[in-house]
Specification:
Largest sheet: 9 strands, mixed
Number of strands: 14
Structural class: alpha/beta
Oligomer: single chain
Length: 625
């Protein structure tokens, strides 16, 4: 069973079990148990490396063993006794009751390490789970429901080779699906593909750095931080060189941020989290026990998807250093307040990506004043218009704005990606080839007709600092109506000329298909258009060259995927993508991103197969030993 099949099974089972419990409440319960299993097995794995066996744990792993308790607290940040381990619950379902869970959660709170970093990371992390257990009905109903949940969570394949990746996949899958059914949850969840898009842009900018710190001041589920970290890791030799800063106000979503970071196996010392109001309490960084200990901390990148058009107490921030150079966002819309907070915490060579409502590009008043300063200071590098209805909880049009503190270039790249999507139920979503097309446009900073435009600062000034995307990126040109052809018949010449790229690719084809009658119209010069195209010498030669080129690619793929031992799946995908694009350059009418789509659509299964192939030698060696 692969990850997708397992996630689908869990989702279907959750739907069957939900009953009177709302999707939001059940999400907190199921994810809480997944996380509890993780921390349990994480402790078991650690102790086994210290030569403990499960038999010894069953007899000696108790709170009375103060030495082991302290050792686990120091290394893991917590301690769980044998009777409270997830595996113990699973093995003793006959005598299991809901009190086993409540007692274990209370014990977890009691046994969090004294290290301040561990305290911040684990304190109240199971609060949502504890509070929602009682909502599952009577004690007997709670016990029955929890037994079913334990069975589901137990089926998640976890071993030393798979570890966090499988659990993280299921975690995000559940979060996404529950968010799609809850407007409240949707406010705190950035769709995975939007997160990947932002991650690829940021990671490219940070690719040459040895140590990186990342901030998300409205972290929600933590998905943005996680994906940024994973994208950056492709360029880093040591993932331990990434520090994650996160702040979130809502307790439930603050818990999700922490769970998400911990479940990725990130060292607790690299996780800096805080619950708080980003606008009211600037962070990072100050000691929570001393409000006067604030110390400005600049970061390499900031990513955020703050609440749109959030009301805030603007009058109290006129002297705030985050806003004094740009102005104060209106009280009714805090969008630019969040943006300026992010910008304030950037290093001079840092980068930030922020998701915002489309209105920030053209609204007047104090927002126009702030926008003017951002343009004049060359802070805005790129604006990406996203498809509408791609976020959970809202159908409004949104943008991604990419900014830096200092840019030598004053031009702004404006990308209209509003048509780059596919329908998925009632949502519009980006696929892999959409993301690739957008990222390439952002990194190359080139004019692409009807898609991307590099706009000078002077042009923006001439437009009174209005950054509305349609002002700068023309939509697809509409084919005009020829009245002469409409009245007198025939094929309008402009329609023939509109296919110019095909006539350039197949020079003899146009004359074989059409005969020009006059300046307005043409007529067909063949009985069958299909037969004429198939029999055209240029088309035949094109097809032969195309097949030959991609047959060579097929031979190369066999060598890359089968003959060689794959060590880096991400690097391999990039290498194959580059080869595909190089081939497509030989054929002008071929859309390289559609060819890439055919590859990307099957890559996930290929990568799963590669993981399985890599696992076989490890499995053989492990069993031989």
């Amino acid at each position: 069973m692969n990850k997708q099949q397992l996630a689908s099974l869990i989702w279907d089972t959750c739907n069957d079990m939900r009953g009177s419990i709302s999707a939001v409440e059940y999400k907190d319960i199921i994810l809480g148990f997944i996380f509890y299993r993780f921390v349990s097995e994480n402790e078991v794995s650690y102790l086994k490396k210290q030569d403990w066996t499960m038999e010894i744990m069953a007899e000696e792993l108790t709170e009375e063993d103060s030495e082991t308790v302290q050792q686990c607290k120091d290394h893991l940040g917590y301690f769980i006794a044998y009777k409270d381990l997830f595996s113990t619950w699973k093995d003793h379902t006959a005598t299991f009751t809901v009190s086993d869970v409540t007692d274990a959660l209370n014990a977890f709170v009691r046994n969090i390490g004294s290290n301040p970093e561990h305290q911040k990371l684990f304190n109240e992390i199971f609060k949502s789970l504890s509070e929602k257990l009682s909502k599952m009905g009577s004690i007997s109903n709670q016990t029955s429901h929890i037994k079913n949940i334990i069975k589901i969570v137990s089926r998640i394949p976890m071993d030393e080779n798979q570890g966090y990746d499988v659990l993280g996949f299921i975690y995000e899958f559940l979060l996404k699906n529950f968010a799609s059914n809850s407007k409240k949850d949707g406010e705190f969840y950035t769709p995975h593909e939007i997160s990947i898009l932002m991650s690829e842009i940021v990671a490219h900018h940070l690719r040459d750095r040895e140590q990186i710190n990342i901030l998300d001041p409205t972290s929600g589920s933590g998905s943005l931080l996680i994906n940024i970290g994973q994208s950056v890791q492709k360029y880093l030799q040591d993932s331990g060189n990434i520090t994650y800063y996160a702040q979130e106000l809502i307790q439930e979503t603050f818990n999700l941020t922490r769970m998400n970071l911990v479940m990725r196996g990130i060292n607790p010392s690299n996780i800096k989290v805080r619950r708080g109001d980003t606008l009211a309490n600037d962070w990072p960084y100050f000691d929570d026990n001393d409000e006067n200990s604030y110390e400005y901390v600049p970061v390499d990148c900031v990513v955020s998807n703050p609440p749109y058009s959030h009301k805030w107490d603007a009058d109290n921030y006129t002297n705030d250093p985050r806003y004094k150079e740009y102005g104060i966002a209106p009280a009714s819309k805090a969008d630019y307040a969040f943006l300026l907070h992010d910008l304030y915490h950037l290093k001079d060579n840092g980068i930030m990506c922020i998701v915002m409502p489309h209105g920030v590009l053209f609204r007047g008043g104090s927002e126009k004043d702030i926008r003017t300063q951002l343009v004049e200071n060359n802070n805005i590098g790129t604006i990406i218009g996203l498809p509408s209805n791609c976020f959970y909880g809202t159908g409004i049009s949104t943008i991604i704005m990419v900014l830096k503190k200092h840019r030598e270039d004053s031009d702004i790249l404006i990308v209209d990606a509003s048509k780059e999507f596919f329908k998925d139920g009632d949502k519009n979503r980006l696929s892999g080839h959409h993301i690739k097309k957008i990222v390439d446009a952002v990194l190359n900073r080139e004019n692409i007709p009807h898609f991307a435009s590099l706009v000078s600062k002077q042009t923006i000034k001439d437009n009174d600092y209005n950054l509305n995307i349609p002002r700068y990126v023309e939509s697809e040109e509409k084919v005009p109506v020829d009245l002469h052809a409409t009245v007198f018949g025939g094929i309008p010449n402009y329609e023939v000329e509109h296919l110019k790229k095909y006539w350039e690719a197949f020079p003899s084809l146009c004359d074989e298909l059409f005969t020009r009658i006059n300046e307005h119209t043409s007529e067909l010069s063949c009985d069958s258009v299909i037969d004429a195209i198939k029999q055209n010498a240029d088309v035949i030669a094109f097809e032969a060259n195309y097949k030959e080129a991609f047959q060579a690619l097929e031979d190369q793929l066999y060598e890359l995927l089968i003959d060689n031992q794959v060590k880096n799946v991400a690097a391999l995908k990039k290498e194959i993508t580059n080869r595909i694009f190089e081939l497509c350059q030989q054929f002008g009418i071929v859309d390289k991103y559609l060819v890439y789509k055919a590859f990307d659509d099957v890559w996930e299964q290929i990568s799963l197969d590669l993981e399985a192939i890599c696992w076989v030698p490890f499995f053989i060696i492990h069993n031989s030993v």
